[in-house]
Amino acid sequence: MQLQGKVALVTGAARGIGRGIALCCAAEGADIVANDLPPHTGAADAADTARAAEGLGRRALAHYADVSDRDQVAGLFAAAAGALGRIDIVVANAAISIREPTVDAQWEHVRRTIEVAQFGVYHTCQAAARQMLAQGGGGKIIIIGSVLAELPLPTSAPYNMAKAAINHLARTLAIELAGQRINVNVINPGFIDTPGERAFASEEQIAEFGRSVPWGRAGTPDDIGRAAVFLASANADYITGAALTVDGGFKLRMP
């Protein structure tokens, strides 16, 4: 119960990595604020994540907000603090990727990717820092980046550049907030088996690619969730401005 008595807010928590992080934090004692977009028919719902956290004995709140909208992010933090009293841990996870070759990319797709994956992280982190400074007592901000901050995956230029940018945002925030004992760190996942990957590959391709990872399998949301628990815990109090790669050796096999 490393996070007993803490409140953790996770963006993009309806499915995949965000849900895995939220439930790993709940399993370690944290109350949960699960954020995502309002679900459309058949889509994953942040409310399901909140209910699963409650099933682990935690208090939980689902709040729908588009992190690319600053006013909605402000509303998310106000609702979370109002319902649960404070916010100790914030995980800026929400992202989007629309893959197109750069020469053919539609500007609205480029802009939407940047608005969510880069500016949305900025909005979330700024709101987190303001909340933590106002309430006192330090805090933990964790940004979910990607190994693609360094590896130039073709057809993914807007996502790649957004992930590179938020890695540097973390370092900048870390030095700005160190005196107030607010840790800011990044987790850079490699190939993680999530529902979002099904937009780009078949089940057979995902399984084959997983076998090519040096560890012998694709990562899981729980792999990232356990790393987030570590960075959110007192065990990581002296770690700030760091980027933790969680990829089963994925980067090591890339040319």
What is the topological layout?
Elements: E1 7-10, H1 16-27, E2 31-36, H2 46-55, E3 60-64, H3 70-84, E4 89-92, H4 107-135, E5 139-144, H5 157-177, E6 182-189, H6 203-212, H7 221-232, E7 243-246, H8 250-253
Parallel strand pairs: 1-2, 1-4, 2-3, 4-5, 5-6, 6-7
Verbal overview:
The chain contains eight helices and seven strands; from the N terminus they run βαβαβαβαβαβααβα. The N and C termini lie far apart (40 Å). A seven-stranded parallel beta sheet has the order 3-2-1-4-5-6-7, with helices on both faces. It is 44% helix and 15% strand. The chain is α/β, with parallel strands linked by helices and 255 residues long.
Attribute tags:
single chain, 7 strands, seven-stranded parallel sheet, globular, alpha/beta, 44% helix, 255 residues, Rossmann fold, 8 helices
